[in-house]
Specification:
Chain lengths: ~325, ~400
């Protein structure tokens, strides 16, 4: 029964992304200033993808969160679903003063950044002026310092990832709060797992492109995928991604605060990072010259993978 | 307490007692030595720990595959040797039980149960290694309707000790246009039959477990064919599945013990701070992959316990396990410094590093035997990713 509910949810999410957020759409780096992106966000909100019930549904299922995370990476999602659904919901529960923002958070996307204390070194994925931006500074043994920014006050810059610009804060924060260490740790688990799955999905999409190409592209009279130099590299990359999935599935035990799964999360992070770096680079290599061309999609996956890893890295310092 | 639970309690107590008897003669560093493995095989047979899941009518205990897996898990945790007839126990016996006729079960199983009949596996030939389907050893029917076998097998483990050999032989000549898999049959050959000659091959470890077998006009009775004529490939593939399914868990336990030993050795080793960081990162990498191997073997055990075959999961497991084992042993050897130069022959002196040298040298075989790394990757790439074959 649980499986069939999961499948309905996953199918619905995939259909939504396939129809409204294909790679060609992600390529345009859409922001909330565009009506199409605004509509898509409204679909997320109205469809219940950002509310607490959905978060709880994910908590009840071993791999629903992971399957959705993978799909978000596979289609290079350009909206901050993970931070809005899996982090903000937790923050609202944990931080009483944030309740003032509760109503506004209900309909607005909230992007997350984690890392440097200095404002001049802070950055976010940019989703438009209509989003909120939340910066978290990890302090060892002290927890997290939260700063909330308005989308209006950010300065937009091009980033390595052409499907997601970045933005830096230029004005005062709207709100700050110190989150104690104990609470800080448990805030991140679902977000981290979703984003690690997102990374695996990005890498899987890159790898699928390469596998398809290796079957179609002929050189020396045969499909290049028949050469062991290519076949084995693709196989290694596939097994490495699958290894990361095993670790991610094990780490889902952390949802419900089973600390014994903490080691699995570390393993999942290391395996997913290594597998994603390998698969996204390999995809370009297997495609040869055309893989180096801007018009081809291979580079989009490489760039998204590196941007996600940079963002995620700091969350593991907590 | 259920019948299954009481079996495990009894097994634990039996193992404790009999392992102590074995250890009085051979310490654990001698686990790989034939004399130690022969003694352990005899003890398992005498204790009734072979044929755990065989039907009681055939002399087994009539338990399930789950108890077999648990027993081997127990053995591995106690670091017991591998019995000398493990090929008979793990590959031939389940294959016989699946494909054998009643008269064949009656003829061959008692020797495995009592430990009198050691089996070897006659697959590889000088010109047929990874390309197993290309075997050339022939079997032709004579006037008495028996088979006359001619050919040459190689890399045959324990052939010099074996009473029987199960072999892939070509009963229909390979003709142009036919698949090389067809025309192969699975034959049970008496190693004492006239015309069978065995020559040992010294391995790079200095030991000689491998052999060549020459078959010159060896007459094999018609009832020594397992399954039907031409079923050889199907039966050989099923036999390989048994090995990858049930018997992989002990290897994973051994791997975890080796990883844990590496961790201990690293903690004791005098390293500069910089080198320690590098080593610790490498250790973490190995520990991560060992953890994945553990998750994967649990999945395979789950499949086998529910009556399924491990299939591609078995190939991935073998690939990861063999490559990781090589890395862990090499890392441990590196921590031996100059002692890593000891010849494996001094392993009997019980110096830890000498046995490490032996393990390191032996570990080179792990990515070659039972389907090379390259063959495993072909299997995964072609069956799972749908990539084209290179022929």
């Amino acid at each position: 029964m649980e499986d069939s509910i999961d499948n309905v949810v996953v199918d619905g999410f995939e259909r939504l992304l396939k129809e409204q957020h294909p790679i060609t759409y992600a390529r345009q780096a859409p922001t909330l200033e565009q009506a199409s992106q605004q509509r898509l966000w409204e679909e997320f909100v109205n469809g219940g993808w950002t509310d607490n019930d959905f978060k709880e549904l994910c908590q009840q299922s071993d791999d629903l969160l992971l399957r959705l995370g993978e799909l978000s990476g596979y289609y290079l999602l350009t909206l901050p679903l993970a931070s809005t659904t899996f982090l903000v919901q937790n923050l609202l529960n944990a931080i009483a003063p944030l309740a003032d923002y509760c109503e506004r958070f209900r309909t607005k996307p909230v992007a997350l950044g984690v890392g440097a204390f200095k404002q001049s070194e802070q950055w976010f994925n940019y989703h438009g002026k209509d989003a909120f931006y939340m910066w978290l500074v990890p302090h060892q043994r002290k927890g997290l310092e939260l700063s909330l920014y308005d989308g209006q006050s950010l300065q937009v810059k091009d980033s390595i990832d052409p499907s997601l610009a970045i933005a830096v804060p230029t004005a005062e924060v709207l709100f700050t709060y110190q989150i104690p260490e104990q609470e800080a740790r448990s805030l991140f688990t679902m977000y981290q797992l979703f984003q690690l799955a997102h990374l695996v999905g990005v890498a899987q999409a890159a790898l699928d492109l390469a596998i398809t190409y290796a079957k179609e592209r002929h050189q020396f009279g045969v499909a290049i995928g028949s050469f062991q130099g290519i076949k084995h590299a693709l196989t290694d990359a596939w097994v490495a991604l699958d290894n990361a999935r095993y670790a991610l599935r094990s780490a889902t035990g952390l949802y419900n605060h089973h600390e014994s799964y903490a080691a699995s999360l570390g393993t999942a992070k290391r395996l997913a990072f290594a597998a994603a770096k390998n698969a996204t680079k390999l995809s370009i290599q297997v495609h040869g010259g055309v893989g180096f061309a801007w018009e081809h999609d291979a580079h989009l996956f490489l760039k998204r993978a590196y941007q996600v890893m940079r963002q995620l890295e700091y969350t593991f310092d907590i | 307490m259920t019948h299954e639970e009481s079996f495990l309690v009894e097994a634990q107590s039996w193992l404790n007692k009999h392992l102590a008897i074995l250890r009085a003669q051979f310490d654990s560093k001698q686990n790989h030595e034939p004399e130690c493995r022969i003694m352990w095989d005899s003890m398992l047979c005498a204790g009734g720990y072979v044929g755990i899941n065989w039907p009681q009518t055939l002399g087994g205990r009539g338990l399930s595959i789950v108890e077999v897996i648990k027993f081997h898990e127990l053995c591995a945790s106690l670091n017991t040797p591998q019995p000398i007839n493990s090929i008979g126990h793990a590959i031939l016996a389940p294959t016989l039980l699946k494909f054998g006729r009643e008269d064949q079960l009656d003829k061959y199983l008692p020797g495995i149960l009592s430990g009198t009949d050691i089996w070897c596996q006659g697959y590889s030939e000088p010109a047929s290694g990874s390309d197993l389907a290309s075997v050339k050893m022939t079997a032709v029917k004579n006037a008495d309707n028996n088979w006359v076998v001619n050919g040459h097998k190689i890399w045959t483990t324990q052939a010099h000790l074996a009473r029987w050999c199960f072999a892939l032989v070509r009963t229909t000549p390979k003709e142009l246009g036919t698949r090389s898999h067809s025309g192969l049959s699975f034959m049970l050959i008496d190693m004492k039959a006239p015309g069978v000659r065995v020559e040992q091959i010294k391995q790079l470890t200095g030991e000689a477990d491998y052999n060549e077998i020459f078959f010159e006009d060896v007459e094999v009775s018609a009832d020594q064919l397992l399954g039907h004529e031409g079923d050889g490939w199907k039966i050989a593939m099923a036999a390989a599945e048994f090995e990858r399914g049930v018997y992989f868990l002990p290897r994973v336990i051994l791997l975890e013990q080796e990883l844990s030993a590496l961790q201990g050795e690293l903690a004791e080793y005098d390293l500069s701070a910089t080198k320690r960081i590098v080593w610790e990162e490498y250790y973490q990498e190995l520990a991560d992959i060992c953890q994945v191997i553990r998750w994967r073997v649990e999945r395979v055990v789950e499949l086998v316990s529910s009556g399924q075959t491990p299939g591609i999961d078995g190939a991935i497991l073998k690939l990861l396990w063999s490559e990781t084992r090589q890395k862990i042993i090499e890392a441990r050897l590196e921590l031996c410094n100059e002692s890593a130069l000891s010849a494996p022959s001094v392993a009997a002196d019980a110096t830890k590093c000498a046995s490490m040298v032996r393990d390191f040298l032996w570990s080179r075989a792990e990515t070659i035997v039972a389907g090379t790394t390259q063959i495993q990757k072909n299997i995964i790439g072609e069956r799972l990713l749908g990539l084209p074959k290179d022929r």
